Amino acid sequence: MNSILNNLHKIAIFLFLFSAGYGVLLRYNFAFPLNIKYQNFLQGHSHVAFLGWGYIACIYAILKLFITKEDKYNRNYKTTIGIILFSIILMLFSFVDSGYKTFSIVLLSIFGLTSYVLSFKLLKDLKSKSIAVKFIKWGIYYYLLSSLATWFLAGVIITQGKTDLYYNTVYFYLHFLYNGFFVFVLFGLFFRILENKGILLNKKYVNQFFFFLNIACVPTYTLSILWSDVSIGWNLFGGLGATFQIVSHFFLIKILNSAFKKLVENSLVKAMLYFILGCYVLKIVIQLASSHPYFVEKSIALKPFFIIGYLHLFTLGFMSTFIFYILKELGKLEIRKTTFKLGILLFLVGVLLTELILFGNGFSLLLSIGIMPNYQTTLLLFSAIILIGVFLLMVNSLLISKSNN
Which helix (H) or strand (E) holds 235? Predict the structure, then answer.
């Protein structure tokens, strides 16, 4: 089991490759219709992306950066992570085979219960009082909060079916997983990397960034339920939360101003950091805009473009690029190898082009210009570029010789 813990990042990238492969297949199905169960592949694609790739990669980085070797190789970690990996790998096939039904629900339940044990173990072992640990702990708290929706969801389906409450429960889960767990954990990992590099952080700015980001997390959930029949007060509450996020970003910029030059090794790392920051800025600006009733109405009508574009902006542009950067900093991706250079360039270009196509066509339809010719084929091509990039990054991780973990 020690070897599994040491190579958890490789397993995470492997799962990302599968998820990206499912995504390309779904795009192919739009361009050249196949006889596949679209909804099943979509569920497999999404679940493995954020539970297999995002969650596992973050757990690996937390163990690497915050947990001592003695604690890391504790039987508790070995057992819980082993069970979690087993359940996720089975999800690759269970969703495709039968969708969100008994076997997949059982696997998700096993994952959820085991992740609780892992979460409480991490909270116990995160003993430092540094700001980085503070971010990680709150990320775990938000993960636990998000997971409550999964248990409530089963009751909603049984008693009401797929009503507004069902979808708002799903959005509760996604919001606190994305904007809670992933955002806080990724910034916590980033700040620990800065600390390890000996880069001094302005404690006042970091604490203010944490404060405004934290108080924004709960109210911004309401932005996810504005599509249902709610009063204008919910728009104002969600807009307030989004405004707090904008305020927090000003403190993030102040933090980065003093650290950026020491972080930039070369033009490729610079491109990655700017890409991460750019996607994050777009994310919070979109959230602020989405509090306005006009944009709520239009985003619902143009869901395949705006909402899907937003989700991919977060998962690919922000979360995944950030994780690749962190893995590079941990020495698990070798920047000097061609596989990394070409892989990350293809990944970034693929993400950028797909976002331009998704949002571009959304605005084109909004302005009554019409959809671009060969839209689905073009999107398929750009999605394939992302897949090739992930494949090369997986190869890069495999080529690196074993290092001390």
Answer: helix 232-263
Q: pLDDT digit string (tens) for 181-225?
A: 999 999 999 999 999 988 888 899 999 999 999 999 999 999 999
Q: How far apart are CA 270 and CA 239, in angstroms?
A: 32
Give the residue carrying structure tokens 């920047």: 335
User: What are the extents of the domains in the chain?
Assistant: 1-125, 130-263, 294-405
Q: 189 with 163: CB under 8 angstroms?
A: no
Closest by alpha carbon to 197, among 120, 132, 142, 248?
Answer: 132
For residue 369, report the phi and psi dihedrals to the nearest 5 degrees: -85, -35
Compute the Cα dihedral for 238, 205, 328, 214 and give only its sign: negative
Give residue 304's pLDDT band: very low, low, confident or very high (50, 70, 90): confident
Residues 209, 206: Cα–Cα separation, whole Å: 5
Residues 6+ apart with CB under 8 A from 187: 135, 213
H-helix or E-strand containing 375?
helix 375-399
For residue 255, give the nearest of 164, 321, 194, 317 by alpha carbon: 194
Residue 297 CB neighbours (<10 A): 12
Q: For the segment 229-282, what is each residue's pLDDT rounded down to a tens digit?
A: 788 999 999 999 999 999 999 999 999 887 777 777 788 988 999 999 999 999
- Give the mean pLDDT of the chain: 91
Q: Which residues contact 108 (CB under 8 A, 6 or more apart)?
A: 47, 87, 91, 150
Rounded CA-CA distance 84/51 in Å is: 9
Q: Which residue has the higher pLDDT, 125 or 405?
A: 125
Alpha-carbon dihedral 279, 216, 287, 347, rounded to 10 degrees: 20
Q: Mean pLDDT lowest for which of 78-92, 148-162, 177-191, 333-347?
A: 148-162
CA 371 and chain centroid, separation: 28
SS3 sequence of 124-136: HHCCCCCHHHHHH
Separation CA 184–CA 163 (nearest Å): 31
* pLDDT the model gives residue 325: 96
